[in-house]
Amino acid sequence: MSTIPPPITLLLRGREDFAVTFAAMRAYTDQRTIMSEDQLWIVEHDPVFTLGLAADPSHVLDAHGIAVVQTDRGGEVTYHGPGQVVIYLLLDLRRKQRQGLIREFVQKIEQAVIATLAAYNLSGERHAGAPGIYLSDGPWAGAKIAALGLKVRASGCTYHGVSLNVAMDLAPFSYINPCGYANMACVDMNTLGVSPTLPEVQMTLANQLQSLLK
Questions:
Q1: Structural domains of the chain in order of their starting residue, each with its CATH number
Q2: Catalytic residue (choose from 86, 113, 179, 192)
Q3: What is the rounded distance in angstroms from the CA atom of residue 13 to the CA atom of residue 53?
Q4: Active site includes 179?
């Protein structure tokens, strides 16, 4: 019997309520074996605020009727909504090609976002101590355009993932302290004058993740 693990596969879930995706990620991870497929789940969510395990609920300043969901990922509060690429990483870090520090794994995810932005002539950068990707130049320098939050189980299996703002209603970001930071500016690609379709950016980011995390 072959012990070569299958490659990372893409699963297009369309537009889906966050609670449905969250339950499905946990269920898939619960039943995984060492030979289970690694998957990237590509999804677009209805408006929702999600809280990480260490999140302070007071960072939701006024939900304006948007659902607030407690999750088991790392990090603080973030917003998901229509016009945003969300990719969940259901991966097994025990596999030889991925063994190493979690920080290295996170850096590869961040690099995939930076490379995706570069494909549209946008410059992104990391900020120390503040996971995610931020604009590095122009009038929106310092604004956050992508968020990242993961769950890594003791088994080495991951879920949750990364979101990239493409063409959104940005108002809900002002209803929270994004990632716990007051007055943090958030931006999307459309505001920066770049207007690719959501499916196009979904596949660009997914391909970058596949390449860097294979």
A1: 9-213 (3.30.930.10)
A2: 179
A3: 25
A4: yes
